């Protein structure tokens, strides 16, 4: 019979319930049935075959754990079936059954790998025991194979982990010599494994760390008592180029292999002594982390922009200087330096140039200091200095003078020549304070005293300055209440058309009706509003006051006038000014054509594209735009023609320079030419003399305001003045009621609201 004909179908695996599958093969139906009944209640999955061909067919389809095989079958012998099994490496055990009494049949079966040979008739107990033993042996073999596979995989995984570990893994014997070290040592330190095996660990350790390494590498303790996170510096093999030729820092986690030498082979719980065998360790390279920690530590105490100590490190050094001065009974000085006009540079040239200026200032200030002095950046444009061991106050004065002198030279910011100065306050220990906070606060107060007196100087602290400082705080608190109690009021300074003598507009000037101090001008309280975040609510009030005054003027039958709202940079930067303006106009029923927003050049230059977008939205609403104090900032004619501007106002600082009506004042002439060339209306501020008025009129500026004509007056008085003028004027020159479409032709009355 051709046995190869049974190699066609794939073999079905064992059943899902993992019950052993047995193939029962016998050509005598009675014996086969008896065998089946004997095994059916034993949790076996049974399959039967009555001849060799059926048996081979089952073997090609199913996987069996055990075959109970009759030796004598009608179509082939059991030996032939076993030959088939062996030839195809079928994994199953065989119990041969036969009625032959000859030894040759049994030997033939066992030689072919049969588990056992049973002679018929066999006893029930003998069969069951043989089947059970065969299956147990098979189960043990499968389990052993599985465990062996796990061990092999574990060993491969361990070798892979050790060889690919980012850390150096090593073992030392009891003498401290390397018995194993992985390949990572060559990548990090430049030493090969062969160079180190058998060498003492000390060949790798930095000389200064040998003492600490002696305890770590000879660690004999186990469990939680063993050494952890010991930081050591290891040497690099410079010639190999590994490690960049620098010493590297390692964090060593050490564990000791401490066990009974005899117990490694035969467990013996009676053995009490434990012989030290060696040390196992993992060394992690933390060089980059140490460097990063140093950088982080440095940055935590230094200003990133100027590389100066920050306020934290400054206070620490000042504290040490105070302790030393107290011990030696000497004086020290604390300086508070605030740069003058820095905000103007930042707003006009941008923050990048502002940062460059701060760096250059820091360099100049450092060059003025003595050894042992500390210069720090407090933040923004503020610097602090501690001068220890003063001989007298003149030492502090001399250094402050050197500071001011060094700042007099212009600063070059990529072609922009910038001039700044500084206000310096000085406090002396122990007379002006004995604590860090007192000295800093009093130096700060002295600095603000310099600011109030015109800037660009220095001043020593005096107790009288504290009263002034308290007055400023009280003023700030009162200003907050002024908004709630409706103590603010708008005054108006008329503007005159000198060709006709007619009042055609006014500039609004904010006044504060202070309960105790009387009427205060804007210059006396608006600087505090800017410093303390009150410009936004004050600007909101001003917008409402503008609309209310217009409403009152319109109700009194006045002419259609255009009011100019002097816009704070902070207010424009908020981004919601347009919505607030539109809401106010709607709420009070005011025509947008009666409003003109007044801005400074600095708003245009520091963020021109944003300013253009905001102002275009206002123009689309119907509101016009004017530039105030033209020529005093960092003017940019390249941007000027891009802005939707209708009016230019000549700053009073230029007007005051006019002392001769036949003189030549090129700045004023240039501004007049710009306004004429761009088709803009022109207003001169601060006109106080007839000479100034005649010069301006002769050169093309006919709209003026100043003490020569009118002082600021209340809204009620201003309305009376305009009504009186209207009665005096003939109908041919009466004030127009319509707002012209062109801001140049027949400009209507304008009220400029100045914050």
From TrEMBL:
**Could you tell me the superkingdom of the organism this chain comes from?**
Bacteria
Record PROSITE patterns? EAL (PS50883), GGDEF (PS50887), PAS (PS50112), RESPONSE_REGULATORY (PS50110)
- Establish whether keyword Phosphoprotein is in the entry: yes
Response regulatory domain boundaries: 21-135
Q: Which residues form the GGDEF domain?
A: 330-463
Q: Where is the EAL domain?
A: 472-726
MF terms (GO), sorted A to Z:
catalytic activity
One GO biological process term? phosphorelay signal transduction system
Q: Where is the PAS domain?
A: 154-225
Question: Membrane-crossing residues?
Answer: none
Q: Which CDD domains match?
A: EAL, GGDEF, PAS
- Write down the SUPFAM superfamilies for this protein, in alphabetical order: CheY-like, EAL domain-like, Nucleotide cyclase, PYP-like sensor domain (PAS domain)
Q: What is the lineage of its organism?
A: Bacteria, Pseudomonadati, Pseudomonadota, Betaproteobacteria, Burkholderiales
Q: Which residues carry this modification: 4-aspartylphosphate?
A: 70
Q: Which UniProt keywords apply?
A: Phosphoprotein
Q: Which organism is it from?
A: Duganella aquatilis
Provide the protein name.
EAL domain-containing protein
């Amino acid at each position: 019979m051709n046995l190869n004909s049974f190699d066609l179908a794939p073999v079905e695996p064992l059943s899902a319930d993992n019950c052993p599958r047995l193939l029962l093969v016998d050509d005598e139906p009675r014996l086969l049935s008896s065998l089946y009944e004997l095994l059916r209640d034993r949790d076996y999955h049974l399959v039967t075959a009555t001849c060799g061909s059926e048996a081979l067919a089952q073997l090609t389809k199913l996987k069996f754990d055990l075959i109970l095989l009759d030796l004598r079958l009608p179509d082939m012998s059991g030996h032939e079936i076993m030959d088939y099994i062996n030839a195809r490496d079928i994994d199953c055990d065989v119990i041969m059954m036969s009625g032959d009494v000859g030894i040759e049949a049994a030997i033939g079966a066992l030689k072919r790998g049969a588990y056992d040979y049973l002679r018929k008739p066999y006893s029930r107990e003998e069969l069951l025991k043989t089947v059970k033993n065969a299956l147990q042996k098979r189960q043990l073999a499968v389990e052993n194979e599985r465990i062996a596979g796990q061990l092999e995989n574990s060993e491969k995984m361990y070798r892979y982990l050790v060889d690919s570990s980012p850390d150096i893994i090593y073992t030392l014997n009891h003498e401290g010599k390397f018995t194993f070290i992985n390949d990572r040592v060559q990548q990090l330190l430049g030493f090969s494994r062969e160079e180190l095996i058998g060498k003492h660990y000390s060949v790798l350790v930095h000389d200064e760390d040998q003492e600490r390494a002696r305890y770590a590498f000879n660690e004999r303790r186990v469990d939680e008592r063993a050494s952890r996170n010991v930081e050591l510096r290891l040497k690099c093999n410079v010639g190999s180029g590994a490690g960049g030729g620098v010493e590297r820092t390692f964090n060593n986690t050490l564990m000791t292999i401490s066990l009974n030498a005899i117990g490694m082979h035969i467990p013996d719980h009676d053995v009490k002594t434990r012989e030290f065998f060696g040390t196992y360790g993992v060394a992690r390279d933390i060089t980059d982390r140490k460097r990063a920690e140093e950088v982080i530590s440095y940055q935590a105490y230094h200003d990133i922009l100027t590389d100066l100590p920050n306020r934290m490190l400054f206070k620490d050094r000042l504290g040490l200087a105070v302790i030393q001065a107290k011990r030696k009974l000497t004086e020290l000085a604390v300086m508070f330096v605030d740069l003058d006009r820095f905000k103007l540079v930042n707003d006009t040239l941008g923050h990048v140039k502002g940062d460059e200026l701060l760096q250059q200032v820091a360099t100049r200030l450092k060059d003025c200091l003595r050894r042992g002095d500390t210069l720090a950046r407090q933040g923004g444009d503020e610097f602090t200095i501690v001068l220890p061991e003063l001989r007298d106050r003149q030492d502090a004065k001399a250094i402050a003078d050197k500071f001011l002198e060094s700042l007099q030279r212009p600063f070059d910011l990529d072609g922009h020549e910038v001039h700044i100065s500084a206000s310096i306050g000085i406090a002396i220990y122990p007379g002006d304070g004995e604590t860090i906070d007192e000295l800093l606060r009093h130096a700060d107060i002295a600095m603000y005293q310099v600011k109030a007196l015109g800037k660009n100087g220095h001043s020593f602290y005096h107790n009288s300055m504290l009263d002034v400082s308290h007055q400023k705080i009280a003023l700030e608190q009162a200003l907050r209440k002024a908004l709630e109690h409706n103590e603010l009021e708008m005054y108006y300074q008329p503007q005159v058309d000198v060709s006709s003598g007619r009042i055609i507009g006014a500039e609004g000037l904010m006044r504060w009706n202070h309960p105790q101090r009387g009427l205060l001008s804007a210059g006396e309280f608006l600087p505090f509003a800017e410093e303390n975040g009150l410009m936004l609510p004050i600007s909101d009030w001003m917008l409402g006051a503008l609309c209310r005054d217009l409403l009152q003027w319109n109700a009194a039958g006045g002419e259609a006038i255009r009011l100019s709202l002097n816009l704070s940079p902070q207010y424009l930067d908020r981004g919601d000014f347009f919505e607030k303006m539109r809401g106010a106009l709607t709420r009070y029923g005011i025509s947008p054509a009666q409003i003109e927003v007044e801005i400074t050049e600095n708003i245009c230059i520091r963020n021109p594209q944003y300013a253009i977008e905001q102002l275009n939205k206002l123009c689309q609403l119907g509101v016009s735009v004017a530039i105030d104090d033209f020529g005093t900032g960092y003017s940019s004619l390249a941007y000027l023609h891009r802005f939707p501007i209708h009016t230019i106002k000549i700053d009073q600082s230029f007007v005051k320079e006019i002392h001769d009506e036949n003189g030549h004042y090129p700045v004023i002439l240039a501004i007049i030419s710009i306004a004429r060339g761009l088709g803009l209306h022109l207003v001169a501020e601060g006109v106080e003399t007839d000479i100034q008025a005649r010069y301006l009129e002769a050169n093309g500026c006919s709209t003026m305001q100043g003490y020569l004509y009118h002082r600021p007056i209340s809204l009620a008085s201003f309305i009376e003045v305009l009504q009186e003028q209207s009665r005096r004027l003939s109908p041919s020159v009466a004030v127009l009621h319509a707002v012209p479409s062109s801001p140049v032709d027949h400009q209507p009355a304008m009220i400029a609201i100045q914050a």
